[in-house]
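Let's sit down with a protein and look at its sequence and fold side by side. Go ahead whenever you are ready, and we will take it from there.
>
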Amino acid sequence: MAEQEEQSGEKEFEASDERLRQAREDGDVPMSKEANTLGLLIGIGISAIVFVSMTSGALNDGFSSIFYYADQYANDIFVDQGTRTKQTLADIMLSILPIFAVLAA
């Protein structure tokens, strides 16, 4: 019966102050994985909010322009070699550039 109590992993006595101090100095302290995950999720959420607030207006303007003036863009592509269309698409690509910068970092 005494062997079963020893194998259960529970300590009979609390750790002394000296052992606790030594464990802290050695970095042998319990860490919560949930706290790390929560911090990561909060960081991702803040990053997403900042990204959306910075890029949503430019994306909306670019795509709205393409859909609203589709006939003019089609004429531009087939007649003027797409100079206006290329500029609009370049503006859209530049507006989503921050996400690629984050991925590269």
